[in-house]
Amino acid sequence: MAQQDDNLLKNVVSHAKEYGFIFPSSEIYDGLGAVYDYGQNGVELKNNLKEYWWRFMTQLHDNIVGIDSAIFMHPTIWKASGHVDAFNDPMVDNKDSKKRYRADVLIEDAVEKMKDKIEKEAEKAAKRFGESFNREMFLSTNPRVMEYAKKIDETNERLKNAMANSDMVAMKQLMTDLEVADPISGTRNWTDVRQFNLMFSTEMGSVAEDANKIYLRPETAQGIFVNFLNVQKTGRMKIPFGIAQIGKAFRNEIVARQFIFRMREFEQMEMQFFVKPGEEMTWYEFWKEKRMKWHHAMGLGTANYRFHDHVNLAHYANAACDIQFNFPMGFKELEGIHSRTDFDLKSHEKYSGKKLQYFDTESNQSYIPYVVETSIGLDRLFLATLSNSYKEEKLEDGSERVVLNLPPALAPHKVAVLPLVKKDGLPEKAEAILHDLKFEFSSYYEDKDTIGKRYRRMDAIGTPYCVTVDHQTLQDDTVTLRDRDTMKQDRVRIADLRSNLSGKCSLVSLLKKI
Ligand code: ATP
């Protein structure tokens, strides 16, 4: 398991605020729990991440189209989807620290600790036996390891049953048997475990008496399901095909302490892929591989990703896994890939009384398609990108710098144009260059402070290239092009700038890697 890096998260949070990426919501009123605003640089990075996803999913797949459905939807939708009855998390409070937790997460953490113990035993034995160590054999025969493995299986089984039956007494018993202690107070003084529905509700209608309770959507997927036939018919879509959507979702999360990892208002990028019943597992594997390739192409390091199969399947799924990322808090879910069967469409047929079937012209049959979903949290993707890019570096001359080595195509600004000094006609020349570049690249102009300070500021917001206009520029129409990561400067012709930058900074270069 990856080690937690609390300092890294703290530094990323303060850097994100200092440089206009993320501010706490309503800060002058002391903030609002687990709600955040994106600042001037944050919104650019976020938009670029959206575009990277959107263009890959829709533009590069002939059989996937996008929609943008409303946040408010008919309240019966959430009855049909199971969210009114089953979108609960088991909540438990520690009476000493007064902190609130998700009981299932505490139990899963206890399982992770047991896995760590197995790993430690294996490492110790590997050292002891040296070259002759047979890991497989050790894991299947060592009594202590076998004991842990048995306990892990038993715990997973009990957790699965307790969640499936909504049995909160069994949940509490499992915590007691595992001797789960509060990470803050260290005590086992827990309240009973209670179910807590995560949906926010509000009222629609102008007068209270005829107001209707409606929900803020907890996922964007249902907006896709209820539009399935609209899109299929108007777009003449043939199965298999997908519908993609980016939009806000809202969950009244019990524990919301990890910056933008777990928010109460967040953004999802989801795609529902409609397939012929019986073919869903092939497509499930297909999308697992595709989505992982998309992540790898970003260049944050392939070792930072792993698949994690769900032990407790949601009420709608027949297979599900997460793509986990190595966040500063360790490996955690970044994206979910779920085989949702025909649960949602079937249920909407039942509750709406409308047929939601596809007529297959080849077999001359109508059927309710099965669905494979890919669902990624945009804010989590933002945190993964930002925390992975944040570097504190010691330079050769003894000075230090903080640099965000963001993938150039995703950086808020691709290039900064900087006159060396604020006189002698250099600002005018720089502005002319900026004017030329800004139609193609998000560009930045700055003429205050020394050039060194300006480079540092650009490093801190992840601008991959700085163009510096100096006195030589006025004579031969060349500038220096500084690379953020190597800090090397090359003399290039102004006329070559555009071609120099577009090879390195365009999304196309990322998309072509997939
Ligand atoms: P978790 O187990 O972390 O609560 P989940 O399994 O409930 O997540 P899904 O319902 O599968 O999440 O949602 C799909 C994606 O939406 C997640 O992989 C995650 O990236 C994102 N997401 C879910 N809840 C939040 C949240 N509260 N804040 C930010 N992103 C979220």
Radius of gyration: 26 Å
* pLDDT averaged over residues: 94
The 3D shape can be described as: globular
**Unreliable residue runs:** none
Pairing-aware structural class of the strands and helices? alpha+beta
Strand order within the widest sheet? Answer: 3-9-10-16-13-12-11
Number of strands: 23
N-C termini distance? 28 Å
Main sheet? Answer: 7 strands, mixed
- Helicity level: 25-40%
State the gist of this model.
The chain is α+β, with helices and mostly antiparallel strands and 514 residues long.
Task: Record the SSE blueprint.
Layout: H1 6-18, E1 22-24, E2 36-38, H2 40-59, E3 64-66, H3 76-80, H4 83-86, E4 88-93, E5 100-102, H5 103-129, H6 135-141, H7 143-164, H8 168-177, E6 194-197, E7 201-204, E8 212-215, H9 221-225, H10 228-234, E9 241-250, E10 265-275, H11 280-297, E11 305-309, E12 319-327, E13 330-341, H12 343-352, E14 358-360, E15 365-367, E16 370-377, H13 378-389, E17 390-394, E18 400-404, E19 415-419, H14 426-437, E20 443-445, H15 451-460, E21 465-469, H16 471-476, E22 478-483, E23 489-493, H17 497-505, H18 507-513
Parallel strand pairs: 3-9, 19-20, 19-21
Antiparallel strand pairs: 1-2, 4-5, 4-6, 7-8, 9-10, 10-16, 11-12, 12-13, 13-16, 14-15, 17-18, 21-22, 22-23
Helix pairs in contact: 2-13, 5-7, 5-8, 7-8
Bound molecules: adenosine-5'-triphosphate.
Adenosine-5'-triphosphate binds at residues 219, 251, 253, 262-263, 266, 268, 333-336, 375-377, 379-380.
